[in-house]
TrEMBL record:
Repressor in keyword set: no
Keywords of the record: Monooxygenase, Oxidoreductase
Superkingdom of the source species: Bacteria
Domain YHS: 411-453
Name this protein carries in UniProt: Phenol hydroxylase P3 protein
Region ranges (Disordered): 506-527
Organism of derivation: Acidovorax soli
Membrane spanning stretches: none
Molecular function GO labels: monooxygenase activity
Amino acid sequence: MDAPVIKKKLGLKDRYAAMTRGLAWDTTYQPMEKVFPFDQYEGIKIHDWDKWEDPFRLTMDAYWKYQGEKEKKLYAVIEAFAQNNGQLGISDARYVNALKLFIQGVTPLEYYAHRGFAHVGRHFTGAGARVAAQMQSIDELRHFQTETHALSHYNKYFNGLHQPTQWFDRVWYLSVPKSFFEDALSGGPFEFLTAVSFSFEYVLTNLLFVPFMSGAAHNGDMSTVTFGFSAQSDESRHMTLGIECIKFMLEQDPANVPIVQRWIDKWFWRGYRLLTLVAMMQDYMLPKRVMSWKESWEMYVEENGGALFRDLARYGIREPKGWKEACEGKDHISHQAWNTFYNYGAAAPFHTWIPKEDELQWLSEKYPDTFDKYYRPRFEYLREEQKAGRRIYSKTLPMLCNTCQIPLLFTEPGDPTKICHRETEYKGDKYHFCSDGCKDVFEHEPEKYVQSWLPVQQIYQGHCFKPGVDPTAEGFDPLLAVLDWYGMNVGRDNFDFEGSEDQKNFAAWRGDPVPGATAAADQGAQP
C-alpha cells in the first residue's frame, strides 16, 4: 500500500499569500475596472498588484489572537483604574482639560479613519492592499472604542466630556480636525492612504501618541497611557502600510511621482496645521511635562522624517513644501495657539489659564530664543489684567483660514511680530488663508474648498442657533445662543479653570484646601 503523504506546512509568506491573494479572483460578469473603479480615476498607474508587500504578513486568525490578548490587558488596567478611583491620583485637575481636548478632537478621528479604511478596503483592485486596509479599519474602530471607554471614567466626575460627538460636528475649533479627515475621505483611495497612512500615521503620529502618552504617565493617568500604548502597537503596522503604499506607487510607474509629490506636499502641511492642537496640549495642558513640542518636533519629524525623505529621494521625492516653515514654527505655534484659546476660552468646553511662574520658567528654558522675547510679556500682561478683575474673554469672531479652518493666528515666516495673511480670488469671491501652504492647497482644487463649512461664516448666516431663536430680540446675546446650540453648559464646561467646580471637587477628594483666596491671588481667577 502507498505510504501516507504528509502535507508540508506552509511557511509564513506562503500562508499569507494563500489567505490574501489566494482568496481573490477576477470578475467575469462585469469587467474588473467597473467593479473596482475608484483606484484609477486619480491618475495613478498600477501595472502589477502582486508587487504589493505587507512586511507583517498578518492573517486574520493571528490578528484576532494578538488583539484579543491586548484587549484583556488593556481592560484589566482600565477596570483597576476605575475601581481604585484613579482620577484622584492624577497630578492636578488641570490635566483633565487635556483629556477633554483629546476626546473632543482626536477620538472622533479614529472613527473617521475606520470609515475611510473600510471604504478603501472595498475599492482597491489588489487583494493584498484590501486586506491591509480592512485590518486597519478594524484597528481604528477598536481605538475609538477603547479611548471612549477609558475616558468615560472621567466623565463621571468632570464636566466637558459628556457629548464630544455633537461638539465635533458643531464647535468652532473642532472644525479643524473634522475638515482634515473629511478632506481625506472625499479624496480617492490612493490620496486617502497618502493623507492618513503616510503623512499622518508615518510622518506625524508619533508626535501625538508617544510624547503625550508619556505625559499621561507622568501625570498619574495610567488608564490613558495604557490605551495610548495599546494603540501605538497598532500604529507600527499602520506606519508600515503608509510607507508601503508610497513606495508601491512610486515603483509602479514614473508618472506616479509628481502626483504623489503633490499629495505629500498637501498632506504634510494639512497634518502640521492639525497638530497645532497637540502642540498646545503638550506645552500648556500637562501639569507635569515630559518634553516640549519643540523637542518632540526635532526628534520625531526633523530627525526621523528627514531620514525618511532622504531615503525617498531615490524615487524622485523631495521634502514637502513648507518643511522649512514648519521647522521654524516649532518655536511659536504652541504659544500662539494657547494665547488664542485663552482669549476665546468662553467659547470652548474646557478651561484655559495663565501658566504659573515655574511653568513660565520651564517654557523659557525650552524656548530660549523666542519665549521670553515674544510670549512671556504677553502672558504676564494677561495675568495682571486677570488679577485686576479684567480677565479677557473675547466675544468677537476671528477670520478663519479657508483651508485648515484655524483662525489667522500664525505669524509670518521670519517675523513673529506680524500675523500671516494670504488671500486669493475665485469666481469673484475672496478667500483668506493663514499661510502660503494653505493657499497653495486651495488653489490646486478650489472647487473643493469653496464648499468648506466655516464656523464663523455659519454663525453670521444664522445657522448656529436653535430653532425659534430671535436674534432681533432685545438683550439677545449671540455668544450664549451659539453655546446653547453647541450644547455647552455655560460656566461649567468652560470659563476660567482655577476656582471651577472641577477644581473644588478635585481638591475636596484629595483633602487639599479648596481653591479660593490663594488661587485667586496666584492666578487672578474668578471664584
